[in-house]
Amino acid sequence: MKGQQPLMSSNKQDWGTPQAFIWWLEHRYQFKFDLDVCAHSGNNKVPAFFTVDDNCLTTNWFGRHVWMNPPFGRKLPKFIDRALEQVEINKGKMNCWILVPARTDTKWAHKLFNSKNLVKVIFFKGRFNFDFERNVAGSNAPFPSMLIQIRGFESPTQRREPNISFVEIPKDARGF
Q: At 109, which CATH number?
């Protein structure tokens, strides 16, 4: 696993999403992200963002489309809970897009899958090469990822069955 030691370490939690993936996602679904809730000034994906110091777990979120690439460690369930809470508070006004490891056997994944606010689950062919201080060729993530879209609905009749899809993302949009 040459080059993957940093990705296997739990010491670093701020893996940056490749900017090309954000652009690809915005182009595919025809929108722009308003807020990045798990960033720092070196890896934010949109101009409006929350850092660790801003504490997105207590700060109120805003915008129509919110991006979240949470820390993939033990705190990940807290970020999932916060996202579900914020879309519920902003019923019908906020979509939260969450990039997480495709760990479908976890409690947090089942919480998302069973949420009344689930809109979309996208599984990807291929893995990401997350941005970090030294982007090393071949240091792709040692795990598959999935993208979850959640949205608070204004009424129960507005909700539809979630869409589940498998998408091949261009290699450059995955950070290679």
A: 3.40.50.150
**Is the pLDDT reported for residue 48 higher than 80?**
yes
142: amino acid identity, one letter? P
One-letter amino acid at 107 equals K
Where in the sequence is the domain holding 164, given as residue range(s)? 14-174
Handedness of CA 104, 154, 26, 133 (dihedral sign): negative
Domain count, the chain: 1
Query: How far is Cα 33 from Cα 95, in angstroms, rounded to an integer?
Result: 10
Digit-coded pLDDT (tens) for 61-103: 999 999 999 988 888 999 999 999 999 999 889 999 999 999 9
Amino acid at the residue 38: C
148: helix, strand or coil: strand
In a domain, 6, yes or no: no
Pairing mode, strands 35-36 and 65-68? parallel
User: What global pTM score does this model have?
Assistant: 0.85
- Using DSSP's 3-state secondary structure scheme, residue 146 falls into strand
Residue 100: which of 12, 40, 13, 9 has the closest Cα?
Answer: 13
